[in-house]
Amino acid sequence: MHFNRVSTLAGLGLAMLGSALSKPLIFGYMQFSDKANLELDFSKYTHINLAFAIPKPDGSLAFDGNATLPQAVDKIHEKGAKAQISIGGFLGSANFSNIVKDQALRSTFTENIVNFLKTNKLDGVDVDWEFPGREGDPCNVVDKENDSANFLIFLTELRQRFTTEFGKDNMLITMAVRVQPFDGPDGPMSNVSAFAAQTDYAFLMAYDINGPWAAESGANAPLNFEVGKGAQFSANSSLDNWLLAGWPAEKLVLGVPFYGHGTQLENSTANATSMYQAQSTQAPLGDQEDAVSTDACTGKNASSGAWRWKHLRGQGLLDTATTAKEPWENHQFISYDDPDSLKAKAELANLKGLGGMMIWSIDMDTNDYELTDVIKDNLKVDQCGKGPTS
């Protein structure tokens, strides 16, 4: 029996939405620049998050898409979706800590956000700080004792400023969050309800759970984890982490990846029935868009090992919609979400009464929107959040 070098996440759990809207909420991140593809079908989503504007040390915003942003916002609105600017991201969170701890910088940052939204006729801001109180990118400033408390002060002031400028509840504030609640001095916070009071939705990034940075291979975005194998987080457990910390189900959105991580196994025949195998921490080259690049923070040269769904399909790695070709000569392992696993995650969102689902990122889908349509077809509207299920 050969071990499947490409692992899907099919056979996962269940889902939904706690919103009084007529259709489920589907938030799609779009990697945006002046070279972005504006011919995507934005009607398939309720909200588009344009990523990323980067906070600078002085509280200003750097954005590599100003020339085409007005056209993009018009196209998004024409298709009936809302458009938000997403600020930060994994590689753009270095300055959040210093900004939110300083009253003058917070005020400057807030005004720059307000002006950016007004100038570009946007519908809200998505704050993607990775991560308050915890290192993400090694270049990030981290204040473990105070980051989360200062972040709440900033969000409260931002909401107050939005109410003054745009009226009550007329401008969205959303956040991208990790698999555990924000860190306080003693670890993940047990109560994050105060953050929920100032924001509209939190997008749970239930992916990058296992990857080439670890000593052992495992699922990128598991529905449920196996005890004692791989990182002990999953979509299901991570949702419960936030729900049990007081985040309302109807304001929680399950994030799913339209990409997989490729890793290089050290000996793929050691246990041919398990996805958990010793691997190199140097990622192999991924799909045709991947390349070796120099990390601006560490100075190291590396490829990401990323495989976008459209290229898993287009480069012939799959025999069917969910089955990998095998055996692979180069002993690589790729974990990815497919139509079956996304159907299961939509069912999980339905079961828990969530506010919707989020996609990173819509430009990674096939031209016929194969994965997006699975979410649209299976995500349902539910009037009341149900909370933890595990």
UniProtKB/TrEMBL annotation:
Gene3D superfamilies from the UniProt entry: 3.10.50.10, Glycosidases
Organism superkingdom: Eukaryota
Main location: secreted
Subcellular location: Secreted
Keywords, alphabetical: Carbohydrate metabolism, Chitin degradation, Glycosidase, Hydrolase, Polysaccharide degradation, Secreted
Catalytic activity: Random endo-hydrolysis of N-acetyl-beta-D-glucosaminide (1->4)-beta-linkages in chitin and chitodextrins
GO biological process, one term: chitin catabolic process
Any Pfam family matching the protein: Glyco_hydro_18
Domain GH18: 24-382
EC number per UniProt: 3.2.1.14
Leading EC class: hydrolase
GO-annotated molecular function: chitin binding; endochitinase activity
Record GO cellular component, one term: extracellular region
Signal peptide feature range: none
Family: Belongs to the glycosyl hydrolase 18 family. Chitinase class V subfamily.
Designated name of the protein: chitinase
